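User: I'm new to structure prediction. If I give you an amino acid sequence, what do you actually give back? Let's try with this one:
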Amino acid sequence: MSTLYVGASHSEVMSMRDRAALIDEILQDRLEHTLPQLMEREGIDMWILISREYNEDPVLKTMLPATWLSARRRTILVLFNPGNGQAIERLAVSRYDVDSMFRKGWNKEKQPNQWQRLVELIQQKNPQKIALNKSAHFALADGVSATEYEELMDALPAQLSKKVVSSQNLAIAWLETRSDKEMQVYPELIKIGHGLIAEAFSNQVITPGKTTTEDVVWWLREKSRELKLINWFHPSVSIQRSSSVKFDHLKAFTGTNPEQVIQAGDLLHVDFGLTYLRLNSDQQQHAYVLKPGETDAPIYLKQAFAKANRLQDIFTQNFKAGRTGNQVLKMSREQAIAEGIKPSIYTHPIGYHGHAAGTTLGMWDSQGGVPVRGDYPLHLNTAYSIELNAATFIPEWKKEIRIMLEENAFFDKNGVQYLDGRQKTFHLIQPQ
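Assistant: Good question. You get back a string of structure tokens that encode the predicted 3D arrangement of the chain. For your 432 residues, that looks like this:
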């Protein structure tokens, strides 16, 4: 196995060939073991996914083997649960087998019309429900295009069109549920991200009085590429310092912070994410730039940091299967406020996508709850970016600062566990 190593974390990054093999192994396992349980849970016996090349349904993309970088021509995947504990039947109404994942179910020479072949298969299986990826509220579950939907509905006879339903909850379940095999490798990605942040927030990268925030941002981009990894969003690095400049919500959450030279006494913040093995990370941490003579961050900043850690504890302890995101948000905010913390919580699922499908637990501009997506209940074996901030007024700076943290965690029957720990102390950068 060829390897690369990441700065301070010494985490192993697999070769592209080895990654492909592992991706396919994980996918095969999910199709065989995870999917049947989800189809049973959601009461769906036939699920159809349709995409044309380069206009892929986001769910369909997660079911393609590693060497399929897109759909081919029009690719139609049919998943049918015959019930009675039998295996899910996986067919591709396509010119090709989809590797070993989906068996070719269309011979164009016998049936020239692809839609008619799909209808024939549906009639043979006689499902109770025909689920399509349509959703008004969850973008990742709304992957069938208007044209594909119209052409399918035109092809279906009336007795079958009446069986068509939205796959919304099944699509979300497939995207949000993490398998045992995935959870064996997911912590490695989080460790890689932590290692890169630790290196970025060090004197290996930052020279106070010279290095700018954009220098650090582009170092992160370049280092990610060196490791044959990609960023699913452009990183951001921002500064809070003793000045008249106040915290700006919009700049903080849109990545439009101005380029600044990093100086002694600065409180630095980074937002950084990677994609690896079809999984994503999303991490925010802080560093403090020591002033000459200092050996640690000022006590008032450390106390502010402790409040943010306490907010994490309050929040994650309220996770319970069946509770909605809005319920957890409300409980957590009320408890934090009662403890004298000024909270803002905006946590999202993570997995196949950075801002993934599943339960939304607040948004930075919707602290009273999020309609529909916040009403979706928590399920076990799901992963989240525990993203939040705690505001503290700093008399020495004569203004309020935000400790903005984001760490990736897994929620199962044992509660919420961070995948590679969480930040509890500042990264420290030495003065020059």
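You can read the tokens as a compact description of the fold. Here is one thing that stands out. Residues 1-10 have pLDDT under 50 and may be disordered.
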